[in-house]
Amino acid sequence: MVGPQAGIGDWYRLTGGELFEVVALDEDDGTIEIQYFDGTIEEMDVEDWNDQWDDGALESAEAPEDWSGSVDVEATAEEGRVPASSGEDRELRASSLEGVDLFE
To answer: What's the domain range around 41?
Structure first.
């Protein structure tokens, strides 16, 4: 039996309870790159993925409420949460590209 095809951004749980997210797929090499909630990154062969799914060692899971884990990502207003203000009122805009020669 073949397990579900991993998709980037999908969350799964190992039998031991560790949550991880699929962060990259390499079809040419037949590998799946996963990142655990604590930030650890590993690579898994598609064959190993299917074997673990067949053995019941993997299961689909919901993303954790605080999905950012150890990743230093601030929540945005689109996600229904507003990042805490650091007291600074600064604009985060790129400077003008005036004067840049695109054909250099």
So the answer is: 11-64
